[in-house]
Amino acid sequence: MNGTTETPRPKQRLTLLWISLAALGASLLVLRAAVAAQADPTGEATRSLWTTVGVWTAALLTLGILSFLFRDNPFYKICESILIGVSAAYWMVNAFWTSLVPNLFAKLAPTLVRDTMLPSLPESPTPIADFVLACVPLLLGIMLLCRLVPSVGWISSWPIAMVIGVTAGLKLVSSIESDFMAQVGATVQPALAFDASGSFAFWATVGALVGIIGVLSVLTYFFFSVEHKGAVGKTARLGIWFLMITFGGAFGLTVMGRITLLAQRFEFLFRDWLGIGG
Q1: pLDDT digits (tens, 9 = 90+) for 26-53
Q2: What does the DSSP 8-state code read for residue 269?
Q3: Residue 201: what are its φ and ψ, rounded to 5°?
Q4: Which of 52, 123, 161, 246 is deepest in the core (most CB within 10 A)?
Q5: Phi, psi of 107 (to 5 degrees)
Q6: Nearest to 62 by CA among 76, 74, 81, 48
Q7: pLDDT of 128-167, one tens digit each?
Q8: C-alpha 238: how far from chain center
Q9: Given phi > 0 = left and psi -120 to 50 = alpha, else beta, which region is 230?
């Protein structure tokens, strides 16, 4: 009202900065494509153009995600939304072609699926039984979609309960076999180890003894029926040390995995995008 110009706020300045960088990148991309097209009229420049577009898109999206390290900004939100949307679309299409088509549609209408979607679909020796069995998940899926209609949303509770129950049962069995029993089998080892020639293996024996002491001390820490005093308390404190070492190793492994992903993105930015160190 008084004729003065309002100073842009920090968030507005950051937005303008990202828009300027994107405009600069797009300009360089168009310029590079035009030069490549003039230098190579055979059509190779067209393929190079789409490769360049992909590299620049991936680079800008990577920078947009990394910009969250500075502060939350609109560019980061756009890249986050793109990531979530593309991931959801990818898994939806993947589930359609790997689950719905071969496991449901192929059982309900095998001839139609073979003619339109999967020409390599083999003939089933029991098509009628497959059709009847496929009607069960089809009915459950329709009941699950009732969740979208508030007046009949209660119908979806039945398929949800079935999915949760079946999943819990399958996960329980697989967890017992792959985690609990495998861990028990790895723990029940001879305290004294010998190699193939029958000689005493010192370090293998040390590892076995450390495993036995660690298991017993950790179990003592979680044994609350006896007060943790005296020898029981000292053993429980030793179990805490084993737990902390285990948690620290697991956390370190997780951090190293994340650092590896970060290093891959930096390698992409410097080598594929900027052409440094190629």
Answers
A1: 555 555 555 555 555 555 555 577 787 8
A2: I
A3: -100, 105
A4: 52
A5: -85, -35
A6: 76
A7: 999 999 999 999 999 999 999 989 989 999 999 999 999 9
A8: 35
A9: left
